[in-house]
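ARCHIVE CARD
SHELF: 3
SLOT: left
DATA:
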Amino acid sequence: AWGQACGPLAAYADQPFVIVVGSGESEAAVTANRELARSFISAWVDHAHGAPPTVADRDFKPGDWSGRNLVLIGNPRSNHVLRDLVANGLRLPLTWDARSVRGLGVEMLRSEGRALALCWPHPAHDGRLLVVLDGAPAWTTDGLPMADLPDLVIGPPPGGTTPLLSQRFACDWR
């Protein structure tokens, strides 16, 4: 049944979570994912005064993290856990290819370096959330990372001020 978990993005922090850092696609993607993970962990430590558990996607074992929200760093091309979830039927509102991200009537070039943050129900429909972070950091304020963001945000290009997309989904995720 849809709607067993609801956003917004900050809802990841309502229960235990694990950060899963993507290690695939290319060396540039691996480096970008590691930098984004470091930025997120730093923001979390500043907020919570403790580091969350973090694991590389290739070392992730679902049974070790049952009951936890997943903060997935990277996209289905660079994060093997997210890639496997999509290959097994997870339908996200966005798709990635080598050059762009598309969905919900927008398209962006990945080379633009925009922030992308998406909150989506875990495919087990057990109340857990997936948070996908890709590109630049999506949070800009002190405190809880992503506290003021909706369920999906694609940020402005570097130096810009207007997000390309800011979307809140209903609890049926439509």
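SLOT: right
DATA:
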Amino acid sequence: SKGCDSVATLILTINNTSSSTTNTTICSNQLPYLWNGINRTAAGTYTFSTINSQGCDSVANLNLTVLPKPNAGNDITSLCGTTSSFTLTGNPTGGAWSAQSTNPAGVTLTGNSLSTTSNSVSGTFNFIYTLNGCTDTVALIISSIGNPPQIAINGGSNPICKNSTLQLCPTIWG
């Protein structure tokens, strides 16, 4: 004030902005994908802007890749346990098959082929097809009644002629 010099000192702190990028890969059955409070429903690159703890701009980027869910096929039903082998076909090809640990005993998985250990195996057996970390499940349902009955037909010892009638008498055992 009266012609005297004064000195003012400014202490300036410059805070940095912040940014981050997240690369995420999920399976299609995991959609929607929740990111920063927003449900993302498709693959893509997304940006979220906010203010960081220092009061500066903060930008978060998400690169979301969505892989298709593989198809393990339709469930397989076998009555009486008469079929002893089955082939599993996953789509697209190139995945791996595994058996659920809770399966009952009696069905063996080798590659994509299933085989039963006997005709009296019964139960529901679940198998998982995995491709690129994505999975689908198929069930093999076997209803077994044990050994199927045997039938013998006795028509007598007389020859059978054309336009003749023959009475058949079946005998069932087993």
